[in-house]
Amino acid sequence: MNTVNTVTGPVSTGALGFTLMHEHVMVSASGLYDSYPDLLGSDREKKAIASLTRARQEGIATIVDATTFDLGRKAQLLAHVSRESGVNIINATGWWLDVPRFLTGVSANQMAVEFIRDVEEGFRGTDIKAGILKCAADFENVTPPLETMARAVARAHLRTGLPIMVHSFPTGHVARTQIKIFKEEGVDLTRVKIDHSNDTTDTDYLKWILDQGCYLGLDRYPGRLVSPHMRTVTLHKLIELGYAERLCPSHDCICLAVLKENPDGSMPEEHEFARNNQHEYLYIKKEVIPELKEMGVSEETITTLFVDNPRRFFEGE
Predict the structure, then answer these.
(1) What's the domain range around 127?
(2) CA atoms of 154 and 137, how far apart (whole Å)
(3) Is-contact 71 27, C-beta < 8 A?
(4) Among 32, 141, 143, 239, who pairs with 28 as Cys (CB 3.0-4.6 Å)?
């Protein structure tokens, strides 16, 4: 049986259980948690533990935490929260969108070496190893710095065998460029998951991605650009078209983020990302799955989406 690196050590892929494939415990900036932690509010760790404990009590066994270095990754925090809540956390290495000027000219090979070390040795100063790779591009498409990171992630994938999660921008069909890069680098596209794909209802484009062999991360719930209902309609349509075995619904939920002062000088109790999702990691359990069942989706297919697909993605089936 295969294993996957979690923040508390390797876990059998067969033991991952109900898995959410794109979430965040914390999103901030590199080093912020250590230097300016109060910007994230008080009782930070307790809040994260409580949120994930509620998720565990409702059957969420594993989350993939997509927080890279430039999104403020704090591996020790993830390990502590995982142990206390009982939820497996698989953390990513790679890069999101914030490439600083100081990295201008750094090569894909150089970055690949760093990402490989995160997988094989652990995040610096820890023995916590990455379990998945990540790269990103958004509305500007794949800029030169982001192309460097994408190629670095591809090369790290070829060395480590880890799968790749990809922040993408479906409105601009950005995955077409990202997939082209992966093909040039020799990546097995069945080990690639194109995320944020339910920010569109363009099923022709989503079918094109699936037909390349990729998985789809339908991982923005409740989201903003498309209504929750239409996101579920799109998910249901793809299931009906026969793609259920490569779909991975999730939330892109953020438990901890910077609190921003209100105009009157008071401080909010929750960050802006939390205000439209009071269910946090349980929105899919409480809202999406019941709607899918009303549409006629079977319990067996629900298991495929949330148990079988994550397992197969990590195993490379």
Answers:
(1) 3-315
(2) 14
(3) yes
(4) 32
